[in-house]
Specification:
Number of helices: 3
Structural class: mainly alpha
Distance between the termini: 51 Å
Number of strands: 0
Strand content: under 5%
Radius of gyration: 17 Å
Order of helices and strands: HHH
Length: 71
């Protein structure tokens, strides 16, 4: 499996389970990982791309209970 797809999928799942403040810290850590001197240019690009994608505000889905009766 492609490293970018694997990392992106895991990050999306992790961020959906966290509140907004923890998500910001998680995204910041991805940005910091991209700046490490031991990371290759390709890996840095993946970290930045995933971080940028997670920065886009996405509302969390809500569950709506519909009350009704049988006709």
């Amino acid at each position: 499996m492609d490293f970018a797809m694997l990392l992106g999928g895991i990050d999306i799942i992790v961020c959906q389970a966290m509140d907004a403040e923890r998500t910001k810290v998680f995204i910041k850590s991805l940005d910091e990982m991209a700046e490490r001197p031991t990371v290759s240019a390709a890996e840095a690009h993946i970290f930045r791309t995933v971080a940028d994608a997670l920065k886009v505000a996405r509302p969390k889905p809500t569950l709506t209970v519909i009350q009704g009766g049988v006709a």
